[in-house]
Specification:
single chain; 504 residues; alpha/beta; TIM Barrel; two-stranded parallel sheet; 14 strands; 45% helix; 12% strand; globular; GH_1_N_CS; Aryl-phospho-beta-D-glucosidase BglH
């Protein structure tokens, strides 16, 4: 009897230990993300603030862009024409009036449990002409109030210094970033911000999607091309000026406050080869390098080895001084911020490439294995994990997903609800893959889905292309009350944050 009793006790203890191990293993597997992971959302001054001339603000590029994809594309292609055309309606002039409603919106962000908010500062609010010697105090006071409100609500400010917001006067007077004098104007602007918000803002990004200058040069660099100019030469020389400016900003930011984390920001999304044909693989590699080119410089401090041949074949000769090389080398970024919306597909076959389609500034072939959004963007959650691993393998610096989301048309039901299950599904799949990337070993600081509150689309000027957890009552023609209301995704994301991503 005693032997059987002892055997039973041993068996019982063994089963209990197995259960404990199983529970602990499950808990360990659930807790993929660190406790201090920065959950939040992302917006930009030029797409949400409005108040386009209030308190001494100068004009920004977005202020001359009309609503609607057709007219907006024309204006982006011909900035000179846009500066001299009255389109009647400009979405940015009021936008969603975040300038006056930010306290109301931050209250909703807090209710969702945001740990951080990624937003930007409008350069033309601080230096209306860009080259002013002294900053506009009224503009700074707005950001004082905004940043203080975030801190009061325990929301970490994550600030982009230039989010497609180079003052329009710098385009008129200097031709935008093609003129290297903008480096000094930008450095002056950065110094004001770093000093003003020392101890309040820790996370900074120098330029939003810096590689966009090659795809939408008027937005990315305030560029206007003259007849006969080598556009590639102008774009890459302008990009060089931005890279030097970014390194200077990193230098200034670290000198003013050693606690500052200064990052860069890339419009990311891995380019896949269309087939396993080696020529397709080379074509995809070249497309990826075109994007990584910028972050290679900002992260490694020098132009990559492949850039010599790449620039020669484009007919580009960069003017780079020894001082500039030194600045780039000595002042690299602390982390890599990036946006991810979709992967892309590339072929070396000219006949196949005739089928390429535009999508979010980047053209791509249709991937037969993937679905597309209402705006024709490829939906590829696994591509986020692939992109995370590629970036981390390449740079071995912390990553920060600062944009990701689904632009979609939302329907208001008769009871006032907005059942955006499609958005929940999109974000759930991407967060699942984000967690897989972290399990792969990627050091990830945080995740801020784009347009956490509905705002004006940068590319199309539409309000109907909605990303938010919060609905804003405004249509594509500017009509509406601007009333805020919660979508179904609001409470879903609130639960995601409170569970630190365990409950999706």
């Amino acid at each position: 009897m005693r032997l059987l009793e002892k055997t039973g006790i041993i068996y019982h203890n063994f089963i209990t230990q197995l259960k404990d191990i199983n529970i602990n293993w499950r808990e360990k597997m659930k807790n993929t993300l660190p406790k201090d992971f920065l959950w939040g959302g992302a917006i930009a001054a030029n797409q949400c603030e409005g108040a386009y001339l209030e308190n001494g603000k100068g004009l920004s590029p977005v202020d001359i862009l009309p609503g609607g994809p057709k007219l907006r594309n024309e204006a982006l292609e011909d900035v000179k024409k846009a500066m001299n055309t009255d389109y009647g309606y400009y979405p940015s002039h009021i936008s969603i009036d975040f300038f006056h409603k930010f306290k109301e919106d931050i209250k909703l962000f807090k209710e969702m449990g945001f740990k951080c908010l990624r937003t930007s500062i409008c350069w033309a609010r601080i230096f209306p002409n860009g080259d002013n010697l002294e900053p506009n105090e009224e503009g700074l006071k707005f950001y004082d109030a905004l940043i203080d409100e975030l801190i009061k609500n325990n929301i970490e400010p994550v600030i982009t210094i230039n989010h497609f917001d180079t003052p329009l006067e710098l385009t008129k007077k200097y031709g935008g970033w093609k003129d290297k004098r903008l480096i000094d104007f930008y450095a002056r602007y950065c110094e004001v911000l770093f000093k003003r918000y020392k101890g309040k803002v820790k996370y900074w990004m120098t330029f939003n999607e810096i590689n966009i200058i090659l795809h939408i040069p008027s937005f990315g660099g305030g560029l206007v091309f003259e007849e006969g100019e080598n556009k590639k030469q102008v774009m890459y020389q302008s990009a060089h000026h931005q890279l030097v400016a970014s390194a200077l900003a990193t230098k200034i930011g670290h000198e003013i406050d050693s606690e500052n984390m200064i990052g860069c920001m890339l419009a990311a999304g891995t380019v896949y080869p269309n087939t396993c044909n080696p020529n397709d693989i080379l074509a995809a590699q070249a497309a990826n390098r075109e994007n990584y080119f910028f972050i290679d410089v900002q992260s490694k401090g020098e132009y990559p080895s492949y850039s010599k041949r790449m620039l020669e074949e484009l007919g580009v000769t960069l003017e780079i001084s020894e001082d500039e090389k030194k600045i780039l080398k000595e002042h690299t970024v602390d982390y890599i911020g990036f946006s991810y919306y979709s992967s892309r597909l590339r072929s070396a076959d000219p006949e196949v490439m005739k089928n390429i389609k535009d999508g979010n500034a980047f053209a791509s072939l249709t991937n037969p294995y993937l679905k597309e959004s209402e705006w024709g963007w490829t939906i590829d959650p696994t591509g986020l994990r692939i992109t995370m691993n590629e970036l981390y393998d390449r740079y071995n610096k912390p990553l920060f997903i600062v944009e990701n989301g689904l632009g979609a048309i939302d329907k208001i039901e008769t009871d006032g609800s907005i059942n955006d299950d499609y958005r929940i599904d999109y974000l759930r799949q991407h967060i699942e893959q984000m967690k897989e990337g972290v399990k792969d070993g990627v050091n990830l600081l945080g995740y801020t889905p784009w347009g956490c509150i509905d705002l004006v689309s940068a590319g199309t000027g539409q309000m109907s292309k909605r990303y938010g957890f919060i609905y804003v009552d405004k249509d594509d023609d500017g009509n509406g009350t601007l009333k805020r209301s919660k979508k179904k995704s609001f409470n879903w994301y609130k639960n995601v944050i409170s569970s630190n991503g365990d409950e999706l």
